[in-house]
Amino acid sequence: MNRSLPILAGIILSAALVGCSNSDKPDAMQQLTNKVDMLSDQVSALQSQQDQMAGAVNDAKASSDAAYQEAMRANQRIDNMASSYTK
């Protein structure tokens, strides 16, 4: 009986300490999960913005190419008119 009482008290105290030490971990884990979810949402938003910007750049490039082709055609017509003009 003398030996079992300190052992039993040690087990009870150990269980109490383990219970107290684990109480903060779920809160910390939930906070980390929330932060990961928030970062995932931000990454998704940035990816969406990047896709929109890439589309806008492609549209601007297409417009630029069309304007360049039109300018080249206009220059060709001007060159043809100047070469056929005689005095």
TrEMBL record:
Keywords: Cell outer membrane, Cell wall, Lipoprotein, Membrane, Palmitate, Peptidoglycan-anchor, Repeat, Secreted, Signal. The modification N6-murein peptidoglycan lysine is found at K87. Gene3D superfamilies: 1.20.5.190. A highly abundant outer membrane lipoprotein that controls the distance between the inner and outer membranes. The only protein known to be covalently linked to the peptidoglycan network (PGN). Also non-covalently binds the PGN. The link between the cell outer membrane and PGN contributes to maintenance of the structural and functional integrity of the cell envelope, and maintains the correct distance between the PGN and the outer membrane. InterPro entries: Lipoprotein_leucine-zipper_dom, MOM_Lpp. A lipid is attached at C20 (S-diacylglycerol cysteine). It is a lipid-anchor; Peptidoglycan-anchor. Sequence repeats lie at residues 33-43. GO terms for molecular function: lipid binding; peptidoglycan binding. Pfam families: LPP (PF04728). A lipid is attached at C20 (N-palmitoyl cysteine). Homotrimer. One of its GO terms (cellular component) is cell outer membrane. It comes from the Bacteria. Residues 35-87 form the Lipoprotein leucine-zipper domain. It is found in: Cell outer membrane; Secreted, Cell wall. This is Major outer membrane lipoprotein Lpp. GO terms for biological process: lipid modification; periplasmic space organization. PROSITE patterns: PROKAR_LIPOPROTEIN. Belongs to the Lpp family. Its main location: membrane.
